[in-house]
Design goal:
This protein has one domain. The chain has five helices and no strands. The C terminus is likely disordered.
Length: about 170
């Protein structure tokens, strides 16, 4: 196992974490008396931020491994790295909002819908940034998701029908 494997393992954590965060945050805003929901949302936000930092840190080493591959796209690597910077910052900001909202709610004994709403907005931005970053990451070596590329299968044709003649 090398750092590229580690990156592939951890990079899904912030993507999925950010998408799990949103419905829990919405429920925390709709059901403010259920403060455990805000705690769960805060946990997802922190987990998302920690996962984003782990993916970012492992990404540097993964880049060194992947840029040696013949199918790796240098432009996609750079785009993925730039988007990751935005996603990590967004995840950190969302986690800070969530922790602040939870702390304020504990201190006051009630959940602020406005603070939960602001955290929802930050969480939605983070989820979008994570998806945007992951999409760019997928284009680094996956020809099938690059715009304008036909997926080529082992048989050599784009349709994946090995041994079949096209009589049309």
């Amino acid at each position: 196992m090398n750092v590229a494997h580690v990156h592939l393992l951890v990079n899904h954590l912030p993507i999925f974490g950010s998408f799990f965060l949103l419905p829990v945050l919405v429920l925390a805003g709709v059901l403010p008396q259920q403060r455990a929901l805000l705690g769960l949302a805060t946990g997802f936000a922190v987990l998302t931020a920690v996962g984003a930092v782990a993916a970012d840190q492992s990404g540097e080493g993964a880049e060194e491994v992947v840029e040696m591959l013949p199918r790796a796209s240098e432009g996609a690597l750079e785009l993925h790295e730039e988007r990751a910077e935005v996603a990590v910052a967004s995840a950190a900001l969302t986690a800070a909002f969530a922790v602040g909202t939870a702390a304020w709610s504990l201190r006051r004994g009630e959940t602020s819908r406005a603070a939960v709403g602001a955290t929802c907005v930050a969480g939605a931005v983070t989820a979008g940034a994570m998806a945007w970053t992951g999409w760019a990451g997928g284009q680094i070596t996956h020809d099938e998701v690059r715009a304008g590329s036909a997926a080529v299968h082992p048989g050599g044709d784009a349709g994946g029908r090995e041994g079949e003649d096209d009589d049309d």
